[in-house]
Write a structure and sequence with these properties.
Layout lengths: L4 E6 L7 H17 L2 E6 L5 H13 L4 H21 L5 H31 L4 H8 L1 H16 L4 E4 L18 H17 L3 E5 L2 E3 L5 E3 L5 H11 L4 E6 L20 E3 H9 L10 H6 L3 E6 L8 E4 L12 E14 L9 H11 L6 E4 L5 E7 L3 H11 L1 H5 L5 E4 L3 E7 L9 H11 L4 E5 L6 E7 L3 H9 L4
Bound molecules: adenosine-5'-diphosphate, aspartic acid and magnesium ion.
Length: 474
């Protein structure tokens, strides 16, 4: 029998400054008692990935000052932690601190060189952006590993380009679990056997040829799940800055409560429909490998947080557990009385949308088949409408399709709770509280999932709607 294995992931705020690093190190130390085989995954320090990507975007537009400022800020952010936690009177402490500053400087030189190149070329390819946006994690693993070592915990920084093998879909790469399992075990097992804690970069991976890729924004949660499945681990714990998964985004609804137990289906819907607390792709690898998943608070580690389980046993009561919102969406509608007779409209519609690289979070279709309506990110709406006008140019000219149009900015609001759709009266309550607050529901999608109902409202109604629906959660 393999000894218990735990993967724990620290998010950006959990390594946001020296106090957070201290808290994270304390958590690692106390977990080592129960978990002799412990792997740590970390995000970049809070704000770093955004600074890197903003620097790159401005460089493409020819502005070179922004990335230099970003590099200086990122250097200062890391050096403050080094100065607070690693510099000491002993010579080897000074040597470690100096070497770490040097390594961070080298990584930042990669950043400024890439940005310089973008400013000359006037463009940045997705491949180059992946090499750039992963630099934050490459810095934070070195720092966290050194902080653990300084506290007497044997640790080793590891770049996940050595572990997670993906396809070439830059910025949203898809892992090859078989190849990842082989390389993860090859690299991590010897360290675990020695009792060392591998401190692995979240977010980044590489193609089989070693070209750096990333798993998508917020992807460090997914990294932890992939590594958990590859080892395999018994549990994956996600350390963040709130007390687990809550009944709503606490930034939007201050009275949101922690949900102690949630089923995988429920968290999958929540994550997919905007609860940023867990990356939506995190769930599948852990379900498939039968791994326990927890979300807990780095800054309140005694709180049990949320435990994710196969079945939360809540099918019977069918209560609403949580409310989420995805902002900055647009509803695209194709309508026309002639659509009834046009073959394959839906298939052609979504093929045309897919060709623009746009994802569709929600689809609704009226039973009359005289319109198809779906949501896309607001920034992509114009491009999607243009693609549809091209795909249906003949039908539009014959007036089988009258028009294709995109709405103003809307918000998708989703209420989640297992068994909800089979509980009489829940949908009624959802619509009556919205009616009482004068919130107009523009579209509804129950979808095939039994655990969620989504509705679309205008941007200006979103906050009222989320708060009103939150009052229904139990
Ligand atoms: P990390 O850097 O740790 O990955 P994120 O910022 O990605 O942290 O996710 C945590 C944040 O998600 C919280 O601070 C909270 O504001 C937000 N959030 C949104 N919806 C929820 C929810 N239902 N429960 C908990 N947090 C949520
Ligand atoms: N640092 C990456 C991001 O900001 C990944 C993560 O934090 O999960 O998107
Ligand atoms: Mg996150």
């Amino acid at each position: 029998m393999q000894m218990p294995t735990l993967v724990m992931k620290f998010g950006g705020t959990s390594v946001g400054n020296s106090e957070a690093f201290q808290a994270a190190a304390g958590i690692v130390r106390s977990a080592r008692g129960d978990w002799p085989r412990l792997v740590v995954v970390t995000s970049a320090m809070a704000g770093v990935t955004n600074l890197l990507l903003e620097g790159a975007a401005k460089a493409v537009q020819g502005q070179v000052d922004v990335f230099h400022q970003a590099a200086a800020r990122i250097a200062a952010q890391h050096e403050a932690v080094i100065d607070a936690l690693l510099v000491g009177p002993r010579r080897e402490q000074q040597a470690t601190a100096a070497q770490l500053k040097q390594e961070i400087g080298n990584l930042l030189a990669e950043f400024t060189n890439l940005c310089q190149a973008f400013s000359v070329l006037g463009e940045a390819t997705p491949r180059a952006l992946d090499a750039l946006s992963g630099l934050g994690e490459r810095m934070s693993v070195r720092l966290l590993s050194a902080v653990l070592e300084a506290q007497g915990i044997p640790a080793q920084p590891i770049e996940a380009t050595q572990l997670i093998v993906t396809d070439r879909h830059f910025q949203d790469a898809h892992p090859d679990l078989a190849a990842t399992t082989l390389s993860t075990r090859r690299v991590l097992e010897p360290l675990l056997a020695q009792g060392r804690v591998p401190v692995v970069t979240g977010f980044i991976a590489a193609t089989p040829e070693g070209i750096p890729t990333t798993l998508g924004r917020g992807g460090s949660d997914y990294s932890a799940a992939i590594l958990g499945a590859a080892l395999p681990a018994d549990e994956v714990w996600i350390w963040t800055d709130v007390d687990g998964v809550m009944s709503a985004d606490p930034r939007l609804v201050p009275e949101a409560r922690t949900i102690p137990v949630l089923s995988y289906r429920e968290i999958a819907e929540l994550a997919y429909f905007g609860a940023k607390v867990l990356h939506p792709k995190t769930i599948r690898p852990v379900i498939e490998a039968g791994i326990g998943l927890r979300v807990c608070n780095t800054f309140n580690p005694q709180h049990p947080g949320t435990r994710l389980v196969a079945d939360a046993g809540s099918k019977r009561n069918g209560a609403i557990k949580a409310v989420t919102a995805i902002r900055k969406q647009s509803l695209v509608t194709i309508e026309g009385r002639g659509m009834l007779g046009v073959p394959g409209v839906a298939a052609r519609t979504f093929a045309a949308v897919a060709a623009t690289g746009t994802s569709v979070p929600l689809i609704t279709q009226a039973s009359s088949e005289q319109s198809i309506c779906f949501a896309v990110p607001y920034h992509a709406a114009r491009q999607v409408v243009a693609a549809l006008e091209e795909a249906f140019a003949n039908e539009l000219s014959r007036r089988d399709i009258d028009r294709v149009w995109a709405s103003d900015e809307v918000v998708i609001i989703t209420v989640v709770g297992a068994g909800m759709q089979h509980t009489p009266g829940i949908a009624g309550r959802v619509f009556s509280v919205l009616g009482e607050r004068n919130v107009n529901v523009i579209a509804i999608a129950q979808g095939s999932s039994e655990v969620a109902i989504s509705l679309v409202v205008a941007e200006q109604d979103a906050e009222t709607a989320v708060k009103a629906l939150h009052a229904l959660t139990t």
